[in-house]
Amino acid sequence: MILGIILPTVVFLNLLLGFLIIIKNPRAANNRFFALLSFTAALWTFANYMTGIQASYFWLESTYALGALMIATSFIWASIIVDRKLGKFKTFFIILLAAVFFAASYWPGFIAASYDHIYLGGIFTGKPGFGLILYTIFYLLSTFFILKKLYIARDKTDKPEEKTQFRFIFYGALIAISISAMTSFILPVFSVFSFGGLDSIGFLIFLAFIAYSITRQNLFNIKLIATELLVFSLWIFLLVRIFLSDVLRDQLIDGSLLALVIFFGILLIRSVLHEVRQREEISKLAEDLRKANSELKRLDQLKSDFVSLASHQLRTPLTVIKGYISLIQEGTFGQIQDKLADALRKIYISNETLINLVGDFLNLSRIESGKMKYMFEPIAAEEMIQSVFEEFKEVVKDKKLELRYEKPTVPLARAMLDRDKFRQVIMNLVDNAIKYTPSGFVTLKLEEEKTSGGAKNILFSVSDSGVGMSKEDLDGIFKRFARGEGGSKVNTSGLGLGLYLAKRIVTDHGGEIWATSDGPGKGSTFWVRLPARAAEIEKEKQFKEFVEKI
């Protein structure tokens, strides 16, 4: 009979489901009771199978005895997942009731006073025992309360995940109970006994629904499930060989192999499970990181928009202040006293500092948003450096500082520069050198640099005898909001944006910028290298115009 082949498979699958669930989280109470339920179901299915192999009163009684334990375990498990807890009195009462029916099932005449024939699945014909009605009532009431609990829990919960889980469990229980009622009660009334044992398959369906509701996607991890099936199959294979073998030596060998396979099999499954869990955790962390990164980008964009808006609003009044101070200093509104002239000069310098700071914020916002635009044109670097030198000569008048400019010995080739933005870079480098050099010198130097390939570069440097920098400062000086340790003590007003912007602007010009220093207190030098390609680019432009005319 086909059921005689299917039922041993059902026993194996029941044990497998219990093993899969308990190994995932042995500490969870619902997992432990599910494993117990699966083990009890396996024993009950085995008893059903044996009624078809050996139609004895013992196996008939065992189907009812183990069925009582299975019903009680199902009720306890359902109470745990629905109520989240189980009272001691209720647990004691259910266990006691199950134990009474378990023991009574083996009492002569309790299930069957006499029988004519025992069919596969524990169905019999003959005279029912005095306890069969009590057992049936126990079965019907227990299944009714289990279904009621699951149905109420399904409608009561507001969490979509729990609602789906309870729905799976409820339908699984309904299918199992319906199959059991059909094969054990309804069909035998019409003298149909050939479907006995199908209730074991129905209960397996119930367990499968529960397993899916517990683990959801984790149960169907291909790598994990394949490993578990392989290991469990080896266990069953060796166990069957032990029972089928008649030679003691073979039994000892198979027994030793079984012990080793069980030990290493558990280690293998735990290793694979650990790997799967780590992968899931990494995947979850990656998703959390992606969300956090998206949120940070959004906040960074809001910050950039705010900085851009605020900088635009500040720039106009600062420019107006600068204009009026210049007019007052030039005597447009009449002659001014020397004391007032000195105060106006200080106001002008502070206002200029604010204008530069606002300009830095605006440029930072443009760079980060990708809106930085350049107007490249052929420019003689000597003229730009000379004008910057002349401007800062006025600044260092009141300082114990010598400002020097070493001009190139030969005329330099022109470079393609954005006049305003590159001038801002030079101004920033010279301004920093002056700020961080309390006394001594600041030297500007411009020279031509020839490469090994014959190309010419423009090399500009600003050297000072100031506070200098450590190796750690040099490594991070061009990062956003980065400031050297020594410089922070000398000048506390800087924000660490100037060099970051200078590097971005120089890089966009196709050049390089770097810094050198022999250490703290030994001064520093900032270098800017630019390709002198203005003539080459001009020729390319003229050639392109010539081709277009043709």
UniProtKB/TrEMBL annotation:
Keyword Zinc among record annotations: no
Q: Which reaction does it catalyse?
A: ATP + protein L-histidine = ADP + protein N-phospho-L-histidine
Where does the record place the Histidine kinase domain? 309-534
Q: Which residues cross the membrane?
A: 6-23, 35-58, 64-82, 89-109, 129-147, 168-187, 193-212, 224-244, 256-273
* One GO cellular component term noted in the UniProt record for this chain: plasma membrane
CDD domains from the entry? HATPase_EvgS-ArcB-TorS-like, HisKA
* Location(s) in or outside the cell: Cell membrane
Does the entry feature the keyword Transmembrane, yes or no? yes
Q: Which UniProt keywords apply?
A: ATP-binding, Cell membrane, Coiled coil, Kinase, Membrane, Nucleotide-binding, Phosphoprotein, Transferase, Transmembrane, Transmembrane helix, Two-component regulatory system
Coiled-coil residues = 275-302
State the InterPro entries in the record. HATPase_C_sf, HATPase_dom, His_kinase_dom, HisK_dim/P_dom, HisK_dim/P_sf, Sig_transdc_His_kin-like_C
Q: What is its EC number?
A: 2.7.13.3
Which GO molecular function annotation, any one, does this entry have?
Answer: ATP binding
The superkingdom of the source organism is Bacteria
Q: Which PANTHER family match?
A: OSMOSENSING HISTIDINE PROTEIN KINASE SLN1, TWO-COMPONENT HISTIDINE PROTEIN KINASE
The name under which this protein is listed is histidine kinase
Q: Which organism is it from?
A: Candidatus Giovannonibacteria bacterium RIFCSPLOWO2_12_FULL_44_15
